[in-house]
Amino acid sequence: MMTSSSAAKLLTVILTFCTIVAFGQRREPLDITIDFESYDPPSTLVVPEHDITHAKYPFIDVHSHHWRWAEEPDLSKLASEMDSLNMQIIVNLSGRNSQVLESMTSNIEKQGLSNRMVVFSNINFRTIDESDWEEQTMKQLDYDVSKGSRGLKIYKSQGMYHNDSSGVRIPLNHPKLDAVWNHCGELGIPVLIHAADPKPFWMPHDSLNERWLELKLRPGRKREADDPASWETIIAEQHDIIRRHKNTKFINAHFGWFANDLAKLDSLLEAMPNMYIETGAVIAELGRQPRMAEWFFEKNQDRILFGKDSYNPGEYHTYFRVLESADEYFPYYKRYHAFWKMYGLDLSDEVLKKVYYKNALQVLPGLDSSLFPD
Known about the structure:
By secondary structure, the chain is an alpha/beta fold. The chain has a single domain, classed as Alpha-Beta Barrel (TIM Barrel), CATH 3.20.20.140. The protein contains 13 helices and ten strands. It has a five-stranded parallel beta sheet with strand order 4-5-6-7-8. Strands 1-2-3 form a three-stranded parallel beta sheet. The protein has a two-stranded antiparallel sheet with strand order 9-10. Helix 3 links the parallel strand 2 (87-92) and strand 3. The termini are far apart.
């Protein structure tokens, strides 16, 4: 038998639902228990499906992380997985320090894979107050490039949680870092820079937040305006250095966290001709707006590189399906990232070639172009 309190609660839900139906999308969070995880019905839609496990054209993944390349005795397994995907070159952004980077490149060369696997440098922000920091960092970059480094990766933690000797956050546009950005331009290597996180991580964790489930499952990803800084502040710091260092090529990781606002990202690309973007971890954003995304890729086809981020061979299939097919209403592989369905962009062959390999060959120095068609 239903109690009076249960009946009142049910009535509230019914009235709220009726209000949504009558007046459109709600604008205030619901004060009821949300059992979002349990609602995931299989679609009854019957449409063509294409499971694309092998990219149409050979590609370069400019955003990957591998920690054991220095001591891995047999990299042939990775090379075989790459072959199965049609990946010709993979870029390991986790070079860490000069000693590790040199060990990685040496091991890769010893196994005859130096044209397939390349490494980026990483630098230390936390010692920025030391008197010889600039000199030592420039020497490190010179040495790393001499040992095969093809670029510099800046982690999000460096612009968010790395502090100077007085405990103050080191912003990406710290004056001492100008020497780094300038020197990368002089060396002809790009800077792949990850700043901040998706903007909803800074928004209230309520039923109006698209990342509600992710923040519930990964509460450590929730940010506050003063912890470490607002999203707008961190993004502005990144844009500041890109604007001021016009002779350096910057690859803005994860579409710069503007994959959900492609008109804004288009204006940023127009304003910063030395900025490129890569697709790592934002394919679900692109797949839910196929017409807008196809327009964006067509217009900015010379500025987009293929990236994945976390390495998982089976997950590349979803990237291929979004970029290559005209499929409709198919799921992303991590529901807590995207509870919505996606659609294929059906990109033209010329755009696909640029995204898959042509643009990376232009931006990253010393890659083996013979691995790719004209």
